[in-house]
Amino acid sequence: MSSIPTPKMAKSRPRQEAMQNRSERDELYDESKKFGKVDEEGNVYLLTDGTEKYIGQYVGDDLDNAMDIYIERYLDILSLFDAFQTRLKNAVVSDRDIERSLKDLARAIKNPICIGDMSVLPQKLAEVKEFAASQKEFYAKERRNMKERAIRVKESIVRQAESLAKRKIARTQWKPLSEQMNGLIDAWRDTQDESRQIPDSLQEKLWDRLFEARKEFEKRRREFFKELDELSEEAKHKKEALIEQAEKLAKSTDWDDTAKKFADLMTKWKKAGHARYREDDELWRQFKEAQNMFFDAKDLADEEMADEWSANLEKRNALIKEARKLLPVKNARIAREKFRAIQQKWDETGKVSRADVAKTENAILDVDKAIKKAEQNEWEETNPEYIARANSITTQLNDAIQSLEAKIKDEKDKSRVKKLQDELDGKKALLKALTA
Q1: Structure pTM?
Q2: What pLDDT does 369 receive?
Q3: Domain boundaries, the chain
C-alpha cells in the first residue's frame, strides 16, 4: 500500500548529507526529478522505461512539491550505499556486519517507493558488493597477519621467560631479572587484545610454557635467597668470632707480632663472606674499632721510637753501601766471606720503621743474589759433568744445524723451506747462547 505524504511531511523531512555535499545533492535532485510526474489530482508517478508507475498521491495545493519526499527517499537510498562504502574504507568491519548491511541494501532497493533513476540502484548494489568482497579479503589478510604477529609476540615473550628461567644468575642480577620477568608477564597481558585471533589451544600451550618458566624462575630465586640467608648467618658467626679475637688483641703491646695477627684476622674477615646488609655494617664497625685501638696505640709508640729507628736506618744504609762495593763480583768465595760479615752486623742494627723495612732489606738482598749468581757461574765453569753435558748439547746442535742446512738446500716447497729455516734459526740462537 502506497503512502500519501502531506505538505507538512515534505517540508519537515531533513535532507541527509552523508553521500555528497549540498550542491551535488541538489544536482542529483534535479536529475532525479526527470523520472517523476504529478497529475492535476496529485497522483505521483515513477517514469521508467517509457512507462508510468503510480507510487502515491500528494494531498495539498502546492503540486510543485509533490515529488519532493519521493526524490528524497531515492537520494537517501543512494546515501546508504555511499555511507556503507565509506565505512568499509575507514573501519574494520566484520564479515557478519558486511553481509547484514548488504542484505539491508538489497531490501532497500527492492520495490522502493521513490523517484529517481531506478537502473542506478542495482548497479550501486553490484559495485558495493564487489568492493565489500575485496574488503573482506583485505580484512581476512589483515587478520591472518595480526594472528601471525600476535603468535610471534607471544612466542618471543615465552622464549625470553624460558631463557631467564635457565640462565645462570649472579647475586647482583636477581633484582633486575625479577623485574624483567614481571615485565614479560605484563607484556603478555598487554597483548591480549591483539591475541584474539590466536586459537585458544595454542594460547593455552604458550601460557602453560610461560607459567612453568616463571614458576621455575621463582623457585630458583627462593632457593638462592634461602641459601644466601644461610651463608649470611654463617658469615655473621665467623665475623663475631673474629671480633672477639680482635678485641683480645686490641690492648697488646707486642707490636710486630700483634700487627701480623691483625693482618691474619683481616685476611680471614675478607674470606668470611657477607652477613645481612645492616648486620654486616655493625660487625665491621666493631672489628674496626678493635683494630684502630691497637694501631693507634702502636702509632703512638712508633713516634716515641722514631729517633732510635732513624739511627738504626743510618747503620743499615752504611752496610748497604759497604755491600754494594762487592759488586761486580770478581771472586765469589771472597765476596761471600765479606758479605757474611756484613750480614752479622746487619742483624745487630736493630729495628727500623715499617716504611723502611722492605726498602733496606730488598737492597741487601740484591747484593746476596748477585753473589749467588757468581757462585753458580763459577761452579758451572769448573764442574766436569756440566762441561761434558754442555759439550754434548753443543755437538748435537751443530749436527742438527748441518742437517737442516742440507734439507733447506734440497727442498723445493717454499712453505716447507720457511718452516725448516725457522727451525734452523732457533737452533742457531740456542747454540749462540750456550757458547757465549
Answers
A1: 0.40
A2: 93
A3: 7-118, 146-229, 230-305, 308-382, 386-435
